[in-house]
């Protein structure tokens, strides 16, 4: 059993490449053979017609659950599909064991439609602290990684988001209105203002990557599911960015956050977006 963060650091020094290999193999074995090849019986709805799950989601999560658990004995896996089947398994994020947070196919709607804007997300955390993350877009053959205190990388190249270009509208990806409460809708309306160009988000993982690369300025999201956010939050942090809730505190993967929240390419932009959300909420 891993007992402290120092031991997690040692694990990552020895096995980060093995985690990357597991993520790539899961995609190669279970996701890409089904890309643009899905049969009707391989696609189901969860909570509604916009909340889809496929055989690729289920089988890739099972693959990663076995592979990651074997790499780090004593760890647990919190995966989107396992939590859908048994919501109580989400509580492991708040437990003592190291936890792998897994979204096997982030952007399932895009995957089902044959678009390449989907990815596999894996993060390693303990006691609510994110230690490492992997964001893999297999259809684009892009892999972004982050290790706390060691930086963020895309295909081996260091990522640095940097501040937005002065005088240009902030480019902000936001939660789709269909997935927000009335209060959250009002808060997000704060971004419908001069100097901000807001648009609905695609895959959360790829939106975070766009922020870490400096291609987008911020995200503003209204849900807490850790599998959507954990990998990207660490990626943005290690690229020099920041994340804040409506009360000006960093987002907690353990939950209980005032929503919506933002992650941005630098601290000043995070404060600006959070203030706009708070002023309208």
Automatic annotation (TrEMBL):
UniProt-listed PROSITE patterns: IMP_1 (PS00629), IMP_2 (PS00630)
Record has Magnesium as a keyword: yes
Lineage, uppermost ranks: Bacteria, Bacillati, Actinomycetota, Actinomycetes, Kitasatosporales
Keywords per UniProt: Hydrolase, Magnesium, Metal-binding
Entry's Gene Ontology molecular function annotations: inositol monophosphate 1-phosphatase activity; metal ion binding
Coiled coil ranges: none
Transport among keywords: no
EC number: 3.1.3.25
Pfam families, alphabetized: Inositol_P (PF00459)
Top-rank taxon: Bacteria
Substrates-to-products reaction catalysed: a myo-inositol phosphate + H2O = myo-inositol + phosphate
Enzyme class: hydrolase
Cofactor(s) required, per the database record: Mg(2+)
Gene3D superfamilies: 3.40.190.80, Fructose-1,6-Bisphosphatase, subunit A, domain 1
Binding site for Mg(2+): 80, 103, 106, 228
InterPro entries, per database record: Inositol_monoP_metal-BS, Inositol_monophosphatase-like, Inositol_monophosphatase_CS
GO terms, biological process: inositol metabolic process; phosphatidylinositol phosphate biosynthetic process; signal transduction
Designated name of the protein: inositol-phosphate phosphatase
Organism encoding this protein: Streptomyces glaucescens
